[in-house]
Amino acid sequence: MKAAAFDYLRPAGLGEALALLATHKDDCKILAGGQSLVPAMNFRLARPAILIDINDLDELDYLRADADQLKIGALTRHAAFHRPVVEGPLGTLLAKVVRHIAHYPIRQRGTFAGSLSHADPASEWCLVATTLRAEMVAKSARGERVIAASDFFHGTFTTALEPDEILAEIRLPLMTPDWRVGFYEFSRRAGDFALGMAVAATRVEDGTIREARLAVGGVADRAIRLGLLEDQLVGKPASLAIIDAIAREARGMIEPNGDIHASPEYRRDLIAASVKRALTEALA
Amino acid sequence: MSFVGRSLKRIEDRPLLMGQGAFAADCNWPGQLHMRVVRSPVAFGRILGIETEEAAALEGVVAIWTIADLDDLPPIDFRQMGLERLAPYRQFVLARDYVRYVGEPVAVVIAVDPYVAEDAADLVFCDVEELEPQLDATAEPMAFMPDVHPGLMSEPAVIRRGYGDLDAAFARAHRVVELEVKIGRHTGVPMETRGGLCVYDGDKDTFTLYGAAKVPHYNRDAISRMLGLAPGRLELSEGHVGGGFGIRGELYPEDVLVCAAALRLQRPVKWIEDRREHLLAANHSRDQVYRLKAAVDSSGFILGLKADFFTDQGAYVRTHGTTVTDLSAGLLPGPYVIPAYGVAGHIRLTNKTPAGTYRAPGRYESTFARERLIDAIAVELDLSPVEVRRVNLIGEAAMPFDRGFETLGTRVVYDSGKYADLLERVLAHLDYDRLQQQLAERRSGGELVGLGLGYFVEKSGLGPQDLVRMRLDMHGDIEIVTGVASVGQGVETALAQICAETLQVPIERIRVIHGQTDRIEIGFGAFASRVTVMAGSAVKIAAEALRASALEVAAKLLQTTPEVLRLSNGMIETVNGSASLLLGDVAAHLEQTGGLTGEGRFASSHMTYPYGIHAAQVRVDPATCAVTIERYVVAYDVGRAVNPMLIEGQIVGGVAQGVGGAFLEEFVYDENGQPLAASFADYLMPTCHEVPEVEVLLREDAPSPLNPLGVKGAGEGGINAAGAALAGAIDAAIQKPGAVAQLPITPGRLHAILRGGRS
User: Fold this and answer.
1) Regions of chain A short of the pLDDT cut 50
2) Which CATH number fits domain B462-603: 3.30.365.10, 1.10.287.1490, 3.30.200.20, 3.40.190.10?
3) Does the pLDDT at position B566 exceed 70?
4) Model confidence over B272-293: pLDDT tens digits?
5) What is the ipTM score, two decimals?
6) Which end of chain A is more exposed for a tag (fewer CB within 10 A), N or C?
7) CATH architecture of the domain with residue range B24-131+193-241+248-281
8) Residue B648 in this model has a pLDDT that exceeds 70
9) What's the CATH number for A181-282?
C-alpha cells in the first residue's frame, strides 16, 4: 500500500493550475483534501502520473451567500458545515448531513467540491447537490461553464467534467425560512458509506405542501432525484398517509444495486425507510 | 500493604502515552533493505511459471526469489497439536507447485526502499493454470494438490471425543432437538500489523529479529531449525506490541523470509505488512458449521449430545495444527453435565486464507452452537431458557469435574466453579423477571426488544511451565526477567503487583523484561490466557525465594532472627520497629556473592477453567434491520483478580471483538475465491459507536486450587459468549425462536429473517 511514483505540482494561483490541467489533462489528478484519492493511490487503484495540489489556491477557499445562492469554493472543507453556514433551512440541512460524512478527522481535510468531483454513489454531498438542483461551475483555460446537477453526475466516479476542467464552485439555492428539511441515512456503522439515504425538503402553507424536493442516494450508480414524487407531494396535505404513500412508491421506482453489505431487495426497503424518515422530518 | 487485587495504573503506559512506544515499524537499522511479498492473485491453480526478469531490472532491486531459490527451506512446522498425518498440509514459505489462496506468497522482492520493492513486486508475473476452488468446508473433500500429492484429500483429520452411552440416552429421550448453526469467518485484527527487522551482526556472526511477539522462544528455535542456524546465532526481541489476539506472533512465511534474506544478503532486512496483506495473509479464524442433536428429558436435561462440526481451515494447516478443532470438541459441552457425548470435528481445507486461533478459539464458536441449542430446547419444551440452563449446570459438589477426555493434550478437569451461584447472581443483577416483564410490555407497544443469555466455560493457564528470574539491586530496584511475552495486555503491571505483594516494594520500582530470548533461556509466551497463571505463579515463587534470602541476610546484619523481621516499603524492619535496613543495602551487601536474587519455576499439567455469563439486551429497528445493544452484562469468575481494572479492560475489549464477530466482521469470498473484504472499507471493525457500555460483574468465588495465587486467566471471557447472547437477544426481540442460526447477524441477513424464513 505504497503509491506508485508520481510528479507533484503545487501551483500558486488558479491561472497556473488551469494551465497545468490544460497541459497534462488525463495524466493528472487534482489533489484537494485527498481523502478518497490518496487511499486509492495507496491501493494503486489510481495511478496518476501527476498530482496538482490546489491547496495554495486561496481564491478557491470561500463560502459566500448572495441574495439567492450559497457559493461554495473548491477548497471548502466538510468541517466548514459543522455549524450552519447560512441562516435558515439550507444551513440546517448541510449541518445535519455533514455529520454523516465519514469521521471527524476526514471532515477536516476532505472538500465539498472534491466529493462531487469524485462522484461516489454513496456521497452525501452528491445527494444534496442532486436534491437541491445545485449548479456546478467548471473552469478551464478555455473558460468557464455552469453545469446543472442533473447533467453533472454520469455514474459511479464519473462526471461531466472534462480532463482540463476544475470544479471551482458549487452554487446551492438558498431556502426561505418556510422550507423544512429532512435527512436520513442508514449505514453499517457510524461514518460508513450509506446503504440507503434520502434528503427531503418541503414548503408547506396552511397544511398544504406547496413545493417539494426529494432524492435518494447510496442505492444506485448516482443519487436519484424523485421528480415524479416531488410533483405528487405538491398540493397534498402534509400527513402520515402521504408520507407512507410516497415511501411505498419510492420503494418500487428504483432498481437498486447489490453488494456484500446489502442485497437489492434489502436496499429497496432501505429506500422506503429513508424516504419515510426524511419526509417525516421535513413535514414535522 | 496489599498490591494484589488493586486496580493500580499500568507501569507500561508512560512511553505509550508519550508517543514513545517502539513497535515493529519503529525499528530501523542503517543500510536496511525492504522486503515485499508477491502474492497469488488467484485462489487455486497450478503454477506454470513465475517471471521476475522485468522486476529484477528495476533500479534498486537487490534480489527476487521464488521457491526455486529457497528450495532448501522446509515447510513451517506445527507449534502445538501437530499430527503426523497433517504434515503434508503444511505451508512452505513460498508457494510450491500450486497456489491455494489469494494472498499466498509466491515470490519475494528485496529492494533499497519499500516503494521500489512494491513497484518491483507489481512487475512479477505469476502464470497460473486456474482450477476450480473449494470454498465450502461442508462439501465433499477434494484433492489437496492433484498430481503432486495423489490421493491426498482436503480433510486432513477428524477429531473425535466422547464418553457415556449415547444410544441409551437417545433411546430414553423425551424429545430430540436438532440444530445447524454457522459461525462466519473473521479474525483478530490488531491495530499493529505484522512486521519484523532482521539484523545481521557481522562482528559476532549473529542475527537479531526485532518485532517478535507472542512466542519468541519457540519462534527463535523454529526459524533457527529451518535456516540451519546453530543455537545462539539467532535471537528474537519483542518491543511494544499493538495487539495479539492469538494471530499475531505465530510463525508465518514472512518471518522466515525476512530472516532468510538477512542471512543470505548479510544485511538488515525489514518487512512491514500493510493492512490489505494483513487481511489476506495473517491467520483467519472461526468459520465453523455445527450440526447438533440433543436427547433431552421432559425437564430439559440433556441426556446425550451428538455433534458433527466442520472447521474451514483454509488453504494449509499452520502452526496451530488441530488446536481450534480440538478445543471446539473439548469445550462444546461447556458448563453442563451432559452424561453422554459424542463429537466429530472435521478439519477441512479450502482455498481461503489459512486459519488459526483467535481469542477464545473454538469457544466463541462452540458456545454459540451450544447456547443456541439450549435456547432451542427451551422453545421445544416450552420452558424458560434460564430453567433449561439451571437443570443442566454442573453442581458445585461435583468439582473438580472430570470431563473424561483431553484437550490440548491435557485432561479436561474443571478445577473449581459455582456455576448455579453465578447464574443466580446475574439474574438478580438484571432483576430478571421484572426486566422480562418490561421487555414484554415494550414489545406489546410495538418495539422489537429482547434479552439473550450465554453461559460458558473458558480455559486458561496452559503449561507446561514458565521460569522467572528476579534481581533486586543496591538502589532497591527490581528487575524481573521472564520468558513470557506481552501483546499489550498489561503483563508488566500484573507481574509487578504479584512481586510487590511478597516484597512490599512499590510497583514503580519494578521492571519486567519479557520477550527477549537473549535474557532467559526458556519461555512459553503469551497465549491461552496463560501469562498471569503461569508467569504470575513463577513470580510469586521467585519473590518468596528472594524474600527468604533477604530476610536471612538482614537477620545476620541486624543480629536477630528472620522470624522477627518484616518487609515494608522497600525496607526490612523488626516487627517492634527497633531496627531497619533498606532492601537495597542488603543487595549491596551481597554484590560480591551474586546479588540479591530469586528464581521461580512454575509447572502445570492441567489448565484452569474460569466461567462466566453474557447477557445482552437489544432493540431491532424493523424498517432498517439495525440492531442497537441497549445493555450488555458480563459476569466472569476469574478465581482471583490481580488487577480488576486490567481484567475489566480485557473483558470490555473482548466484548468489542465479540460484537464485531456477531454483527460486522466477515471475510466474504466470491464464487472464484476472490476475497471481497480485503480492506477496512468492507471488513468492518466495531468502533466506539457500535460497542456498548459493558457492565462487568467480576467474581472471585471459585479460586483455582491449581496455582499458588488461585488465579484463572482473564483474557478470553469477554468475547466467548458474545455471539450466543446477542443471537438469543435478537430471537427474543423479533419473537422468532431459533431465527438466528448464523453469525455475523448482518442487517442483510436480519432482513431476510424478518421478510422470510431463517437466516
Assistant:
1) none
2) 3.30.365.10
3) yes
4) 999 999 999 999 999 999 999 9
5) 0.95
6) C
7) Alpha-Beta Complex (3.90)
8) yes
9) 3.30.390.50
Interface of B with A (CB under 8 A): 114-115, 118-119, 122, 274-276, 623-626, 664, 668, 676-677, 679, 681-682, 684, 686-687, 689-690, 746-748, 751-752, 755
Using an 8 Å CB-CB cutoff, list residues of chain A that contact chain B: 1-5, 43-44, 186, 188-193, 195-196, 260-263, 265-266, 269-270, 272-273, 276-277
B24-131+193-241+248-281 with B462-603: one CATH topology? no
Nearest to B664 among A5, A189, A193 (CB): A189
Contacts of A44 in chain B (CB under 8 A): 122
Which of A1, A266, A276 minimises the CB distance to B274? A1
Residue B383, C-alpha cell as written in the block: 420452558
At A127-145, the pLDDT tens digits run 999 999 999 999 999 999 9
Chain-chain contact of A189 with B276 (C-beta, under 8 angstroms): no
Task: Give chain B's mean pLDDT.
Answer: 97
Which CATH architecture describes the domain B285-461+607-755?
2-Layer Sandwich (3.30)
Measured between alpha carbons, how far is B335 from B610 in angstroms, rounded to an integer? Answer: 10
Domain ranges of chain A: 7-53, 60-173, 181-282
Give the three-state DSSP class for B668: coil
Cβ atoms of B642 and B502 closer than 8 Å:
no
**Beta A208-217 vs A194-205: how paired, if at all?**
antiparallel
Distance CA B484, CA B499 (A): 15
User: What top-level class would CATH report for the domain A60-173?
Assistant: alpha beta
Nearest Cα to Cα of residue A36 among A96, A164, A125, A169 = A125
Q: Residue B758's pLDDT band (boundaries 50, 70, 90)?
A: very low
High-pLDDT (> 70) share of chain B, %? 100
- In tens, the pLDDT along B692-750 reads 999 999 999 999 999 999 999 999 999 999 999 999 999 999 999 999 999 999 999 99
Domain limits, chain B: 24-131+193-241+248-281, 285-461+607-755, 462-603
Of A1, A193, A269, the CB nearest to B275: A1
The answer regarding whether domain A7-53 maps to CATH 3.30.365.10 reads no
Q: Is B449 exposed, middle or buried (0-12, 13-18, 19+ CB in 10 A)?
A: buried
Largest CA distance in chain B: 86
- Note the helical H segments in B431-530: 432-444, 491-503
Mean pLDDT of chain A: 97
- pLDDT score at B756: 80
Non-local (6+) Cβ contacts of A159 within 8 A are A116, A117, A119, A152, A153, A167
Best of B278, B624, B625 to disrupt the A interface (most A CBs within 10 Å) is B624
Tell me which residue in B626, B752, B755 faces A186 most closely, judged by beta carbons: B626
Alpha carbons B675 and B666: distance in angstroms, whole number: 10
The closest CB to that of A189, out of B115, B625, B684, belongs to: B684
DSSP structure class, residue B661:
I
- pLDDT score of B422 more than 50: yes
* pTM of the predicted protein model: 0.97
Q: Is there a contact between B624 and A273 if contact means CB atoms under 8 Å apart?
A: yes
